[in-house]
Amino acid sequence: MSDDKISGVFQLHQSNPSGVCGACKQGLTNPDVSPGILKQFSEKYPNLIIEVTTESAEIGSKLNFTIKNGKIL
User: Fold this and answer.
1) Would you list the domain boundaries of the chain?
2) Helix (H) or strand (E) holding 14
3) Contact of 6 with 45, CB cutoff 8 Å
């Protein structure tokens, strides 16, 4: 199966209370820097929605976010 045929929702819950580290989320808001692992993974599987949540994060905070095809939704 090709990467672009993979679809659905991938839920990633992480326990770092300060959120996803900068290196991992790099490139999601600034396309002029090298992409971090989350952007790389999201671009590899463009039809996959990635929901990232953080332990102890308030609902709606910037510590929780959703990505699709390398962009924050």
Assistant:
1) 3-72
2) strand 8-14
3) yes
